[in-house]
């Protein structure tokens, strides 16, 4: 069988070239081919090599995906290789320098078969432990996260089990350290730290509500800085919400006292000072506090909560898994378009990218049009699982239930390979 290639859409190439203000001759010069070859590319008579495709994308100031027509979140193994500008031989040469490449006796025909979804024969190719090390090696060569290679692998080879299983990392060490940090605090410091955690959670809920109602909301890096005090008489400026929390517990110091500084010295909080305008007091100094990861872990340990678990390759965070579970629970009809807001689609939805230089989404959900009864027009859109999203749940549902028991997975099963 021929080696897999990525055909560029001629019309798209012409439009992107004209948008960039380049002539055929100038584009040819930048990618190192003849003007005649660019003419062939634009007429669909030839396909550029991975290196030239990458040079072409750089010259046109676009992504490779814009030339090939592959939507973000739909990438297969061959797309990752072309995106890195590498031929089969180049990848094999690098893989042979790794232990897994030698264990699998990697060759261009074997890598080609892997990319085309065909059976791969050879030593150790039936050993899941050995094959499971290959995605990490490919990720390093392609310059992408391992989870992108795992997802692309599952799209390329949908009838096989996922190549990588979560390792089930233990959290005892982190939990023990967090507990020790909590035990080192006096009662007053514990109350402060616990109330800061509760105020952070309330603020997070408020930000979620704003996004749900399509209202502007600051980024987490901003809203996690919680107002603690205004350096002015309370009779004039009043108390912040966090101060009111502390006052109800009978531990509030005027301004920012020794307790906050003690927590900061221990690396549990960070204080930020700025100047804001108050309608009565004028410009006043404001003090905000932000929990560090260590402080959050200590507060959770002190309040008897389970330690936060970092998602293991290729799992989602608890937040994103909660979104996926909502879509899965909606069943074949899908979830209302407005039911999802905020950043979730940028990490999960086909065609999205979380920022200009960020990684493409995982493509686990997609906006599917709903047609009128007579099929004449689209009446709306609903979020539904993509085949790779469905496959991901089939592979990892039990692991998610073990790790994130608070996420509602009622009604989600994998009988017959389909959540229901």
UniProtKB/TrEMBL annotation:
UniProt region (Disordered), positions on chain: 159-180
Domain of life: Bacteria
Domain (HTH cro/C1-type): residue spans on this chain: 13-67
One Pfam family cited in the UniProt record for this chain: HTH_3
InterPro entries named among the record's database cross-references: Cro/C1-type_HTH, Lambda_DNA-bd_dom_sf
Annotated protein name in UniProt: Helix-turn-helix transcriptional regulator
